[in-house]
Amino acid sequence: MPDTLTAAQPRSAEILNAVRSSFAEKGFDGASMQDLAKAAGMSVGNFYRYFPSKAAIIEALIARDLEAVGEDFARVITSADPMQMLRDVLREHVEVKHCNEDFPLWAEITAIAQRRPEIGAACGRMESEVRRYLLTIFSHATGLPLAETERRFVTHADFVVMLVSASAVQPPDRRTGADELTAMVLRTINATLDEVARSDVKG
After folding, report:
1. Is the pLDDT of residue 170 over 80?
2. Does domain 55-199 bear CATH number 1.25.10?
3. Residues of the chain with CATH 1.10.10.60
4. Who contacts 48 (Cβ-Cβ below 8 Å, separation ≥6)?
5. Which H, E and C letters describe 18-58, residue by residue?
6. With 80 as the cut, is the pLDDT of residue 188 above it?
7. For 1-52, CATH number?
8. pLDDT of 2 above 70
9. What is the DSSP letter of 201?
10. CA-CA distance, 103 to 74, in Å (whole number)?
11. What tens digit of pLDDT does each residue of 64-93 get?
12. pLDDT (tens digit, 9 = 90+) per residue, 9-48?
């Protein structure tokens, strides 16, 4: 991705914050570049200097969220109890982070990914990176070599990614059974992590 599109640049990050809600409210097809430029308080011409297309904005949003995920996993791997910290971080993502403005945005991104190959590829890269983070934590927590961890637990990692991703696109409307569904997702994630933890060879 070109440097001008990276979320690390302060102005780009400000723009992404400004247009995030517009994308969530109007959708990929409904939000025009004019709408997004207006949300960012910029002229259309200046806006294009940062983001030449709506797809580029979505890719930058994904990259920024992946950067935040990386920070979470760095906190996990350096903790005294990585598996417990991993459970805490995943619970936060399921219970808190996806019960706010993240739901409509990620629901829209998930829909776009099905019809725009470049967005699908960006989502795929994010999932691959999260899988790699999980396998690194599994290896660190169990004492198994990374290659052996991947052989034995790549499906576990993929399953956790799938559960967290699915929770991200569930509307937080507090419908009947919503709390029970969230609790079931977390129980399933914890049971999956329990299977990995039982392979601890360090003791």
Report:
1. no
2. no
3. 1-52
4. 33
5. HHHHHHHHHHHHHCCHHHHHHHCCCCHHHHHHHCCCHHHHH
6. yes
7. 1.10.10.60
8. no
9. -
10. 24
11. 888 989 999 999 999 999 999 999 999 988
12. 678 888 988 888 787 788 888 889 999 999 899 999 999 9
User: And the tokens for 63?
Assistant: 């990259």
Closest CA relative to residue 137, chosen from 57, 60, 70? 70
pLDDT tens for each residue of 44-57? 999 999 999 989 99
Find all residues with CB under 8 Å of 143, minimum gap 6, and list them.
200, 201, 202
CATH 1.10.357 domain span(s) along the chain: 55-199
Residues making up the chain, counted from first to last: 203
Q: For the full predicted model, state whether its pTM sits above 0.90.
A: no
What six digits make up the tokens of 55? 């797809």
Residues in Cβ contact with 104 at an 8 Å cutoff, skipping those fewer than 6 apart: 24, 25
Phi, psi of 138 (to 5 degrees): -60, -45
Cα→Cα distances 57→9, 36, 53, 123, 128, Å: 13, 10, 7, 13, 20
